[in-house]
Hints:
Layout: H1 9-50, H2 57-186, H3 192-219, E1 227-230, H4 231-248, E2 252-257, E3 262-265, H5 267-287, E4 294-302, E5 305-312, H6 319-322, H7 342-353, E6 357-362, E7 367-374
Helix pairs in contact: 1-2, 2-3, 2-4, 4-5, 5-7
Amino acid sequence: MFNKNGIPFFVIMIPFLCVIFTAFFSTSYYLKVSNNDYTTSVKEYKKLYLLQENPNLEQLDEILKDKEQHHLQRQNEYEDFVLTLTISIIIFMILFSALMITIKNDIINKYIQKVKSKEEKLQDLNKTLITKVTLGIEEGKKKDKAILQQSKLARMGSMISMIAHQWRQPLSELSGVLMELELATKFKKVNEQHILNSIERSNEMIEFMSNTIDDFRNFYKPDKKKENFLISDACTKALHIVDATLHNLSIDLVFNIKQDKLIFGYPNEYSQVVLNIISNATDILVERKIEKPKIEITITAKGLQSIVTIKDNANGIDEKNIESIFDPYYSTKDSSKGTGLGLYISKLIIERNMGGELSVENDADGAVFKIIVIG
Length: 375
């Protein structure tokens, strides 16, 4: 039923069958009509001839024989014509079909070659794609490691700066105690009670400084598992780390707890997000030399949501930068003061690790960061 290229056999045979059927039908029909006409003509001729006076029957037979011979000759000529025409059409159809099959085979072969070529390219692409995906994954892992490493270094630098602020006052007091002892010794006014008091005060300062180190170490310790914690506790923990810095820079901090909420998540990571936003606000307040600098933290709740807003009065974020503020490596600070990773990691912590939302907008005074977490 099909040839090797999948072309139905009857599609090729139909034109030949149609030509043969048409030739046979037309020849049969013509012969039938011609015979009928001949028979009718002969009868009429006989009738008219016999009506004549003294008809010659022998002459009539001769005439009829001539007519019959002429009729047969015409039929033979017609049959020869139809046969010649049929053979010509069949030959033409054979040549036309062969040409069409050749053209169709050529088109099919070209299409098959084209499909094979595309399949080969697709196979090559699949092979290279696997390699590219593997390389992309490796590069992504390297990039993530680099981001985490830079983040650790940035946090270390920030932590050292904050420790320096926290230690400034106790170091000053410790220096004062030693100076008192030195002067008392020079003027020979030192006594046992004075020495004991100085030692006690020094120990208090040293203990305070030691506790500061412990606070920072625990603060940056990664959370092992989620736990329930109050939003106010996480914010207070961050404020204890940064309060000395804010005090030394004369930045007013307002902490409002309108409605506290217990949530389930990573308390240390949440505190680090709050600290990072406060640190950014501190940097911009200092950089722009704002008079009466102020940071305001407000804790509220709405249904299941816990909402913390952190706003400053540093005149806000430039509108052209506000869409990119959470992008990795994006920073408006000098390269020596920031890596552009703090807000990016903060957003990952809130949105990926805790299923919340971290956003920013401007108000009349400055930037307003909003942390929303479902309890």
